[in-house]
Design brief:
Elements (H helix, E strand, L loop, with lengths): L24 H5 L5 H32 L5 H34 L3
Helix pairs in contact: 2-3
């Protein structure tokens, strides 16, 4: 299992906060068309990663139930990763809804 370094936004604003893995050369070469497109693609990418984690955990659960899984710790790790990712996604969604509601309450 490979551990990839986290990327934090730099002070000058050139960093990326949306990805955990280093961007590929193709991603670096692609110009951003705008903040809305970039944010939307980050959200969709995050949801795709969450779906991938849950699919992996589900597949390993089936293998464990049928006796085809040799190392049970693989399932335990995958289930923990999927759980943490789901909790993070729900927390982000809740904060986004709270922010939207706060904006809607503002008087113009």
């Amino acid at each position: 299992m490979e551990i990839t370094p986290l990327q934090f936004p730099s002070v000058s604003g050139t960093g990326s906060i949306g990805s955990i893995a280093a961007p590929t050369p193709a991603e670096r070469a692609t110009p951003a068309t705008g903040p809305d497109t970039e944010f939307g693609s980050l959200v969709l990418d995050g949801l795709d990663r969450l779906e991938g984690l849950t699919d992996k955990a589900d597949g390993l659960a089936v293998q464990a139930a049928t006796g085809k899984l040799e190392n049970i710790h693989d399932y335990t790790i995958a289930a923990s990763e999927a759980s943490v990712a789901s909790q993070l996604t729900v927390a982000l969604r809740n904060r986004a809804v709270e922010a939207f509601n706060e904006i809607m309450r503002m008087q113009v």
